[in-house]
């Protein structure tokens, strides 16, 4: 009888540990190839080693995912840094445990006429989605070169038709659309690279998730394991990413754009400075009226301890 009771207790204890260990996590992302560490973690279930049961909930944009996270529907979300800039200035409650990738090949796209520099667009019309990171990038680039162009608010699906009709002279759209734009324009496709401009894909934790530092550590541990696989075998990581997006982006396209990204997981001063610059611009343009965009304001949103314990050399915040 004692043996049976011991066995029953052990079984119950094992069940309790197993149930406790499989922590459910709702992560907002989508079938996007920008963060291969996520693809590795999901396709190879690297979450399991951290006793996590991660469900990826798709969102069309990072802004949508951010709103869901603030609304309590998500524990974590991945997005470009821009929604977090506006959220910080509006004093919303969340944290940024890591930058999980960086895109560094933004471009202005035109039709037919070779593009040699921004100066040729003085007095011309450039389409972009209002109040977004690509709006900031083109506005900042034009200002830096002293070029005055007319920036026209156009939704991303309407940009190519506007360019083809001649309603605008160039378009500034999101990187995920570049391939489709190039295919649509064919031989008429022209582009102008904008060196020096980048966007960070960040992991954002809800207020509830950020209060559990051990949980954040476990999520990051799985992603850091995925990062190691990305750099160990890039070709295999590209194939894994293609499987993750389920043919939404072909393997050939993923391989072609791979050099446009920095896939290191980190918390860096570069991202902090970018967020401050974007905050200053948002405030000056009247898109956000709250908050004073200082380094201290944005630095408070970063949560460096979990990543520092995993990859101390990759945390370079002041």
Description:
- The structure is a single chain.
- The chain has 318 residues and is α/β, with parallel strands linked by helices.
- It has 2 domains: 2-104 and 198-314, D-Maltodextrin-Binding Protein, domain 2; 107-193, D-Maltodextrin-Binding Protein, domain 2, CATH 3.40.190.10.
- It is built from 14 helices and 11 strands.
- It has helices at residues 2-21, 36-43, 62-70, 81-89, 133-144, 156-165, 178-185, 207-210, 213-232, 234-245, 251-257, 269-285, 295-299, 305-310; strands spanning 23-29, 52-58, 76-80, 94-103, 107-111, 125-128, 150-153, 170-171, 189-193, 199-206, 261-262.
- A 6-stranded mixed β-sheet has the order 2-1-3-10-4-11, sandwiched between helices. Strands 7-6-8-5-9 form a 5-stranded mixed β-sheet, with helices on both faces.
- Strand 1, helix 2 (36-43) and strand 2 form a beta-alpha-beta unit.
- Helix 2 (36-43) packs across helix 9, helix 2 (36-43) crosses helix 10 and helix 9 (213-232) packs across helix 10.
- The radius of gyration is 22 Å and the shape is globular.
- The termini are far apart.
């Amino acid at each position: 009888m004692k043996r049976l009771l011991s066995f029953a207790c052990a079984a119950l204890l094992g069940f309790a540990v197993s149930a406790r260990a499989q922590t459910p996590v709702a992560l907002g992302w989508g079938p996007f190839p920008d963060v291969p560490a996520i693809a590795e973690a999901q396709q190879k279930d690297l979450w399991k080693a951290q006793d996590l049961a991660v469900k990826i909930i798709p969102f069309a944009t990072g802004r949508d995912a951010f709103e869901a996270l603030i609304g309590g529907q998500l524990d974590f979300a991945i997005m470009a840094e821009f929604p977090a800039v506006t959220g910080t200035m509006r004093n919303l409650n969340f944290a940024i445990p890591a930058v999980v990738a960086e895109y560094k090949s933004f471009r202005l796209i035109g039709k037919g006429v070779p593009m040699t520099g921004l100066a040729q667009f003085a007095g011309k019309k450039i389409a972009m989605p209002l109040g977004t990171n690509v709006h900031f990038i083109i506005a900042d680039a034009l200002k830096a070169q002293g070029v005055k162009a007319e920036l026209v608010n156009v939704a991303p699906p309407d940009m190519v038709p506007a360019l083809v009709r001649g309603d605008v002279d160039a378009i500034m759209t999101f990187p995920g659309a570049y391939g489709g734009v190039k295919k649509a324009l064919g031989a008429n496709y022209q582009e102008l690279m904008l060196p020096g401009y980048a966007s960070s894909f960040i992991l954002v934790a809800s207020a509830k998730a950020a209060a559990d530092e051990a949980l954040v550590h476990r999520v990051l541990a799985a992603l850091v394991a995925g990062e190691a696989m990305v750099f160990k075998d890039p070709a295999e990581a590209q194939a894994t990413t293609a499987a993750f997006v389920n043919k939404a982006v072909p393997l050939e396209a993923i391989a072609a754009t791979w050099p446009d990204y920095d896939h290191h997981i980190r918390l860096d001063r570069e991202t902090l400075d970018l967020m401050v610059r974007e905050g200053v611009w948002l405030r000056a343009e009247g898109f956000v009226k709250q908050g004073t965009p200082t380094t201290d304001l944005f630095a408070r949103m970063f949560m460096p301890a979990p990543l520092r314990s995993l990859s101390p050399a990759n945390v370079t915040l002041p």
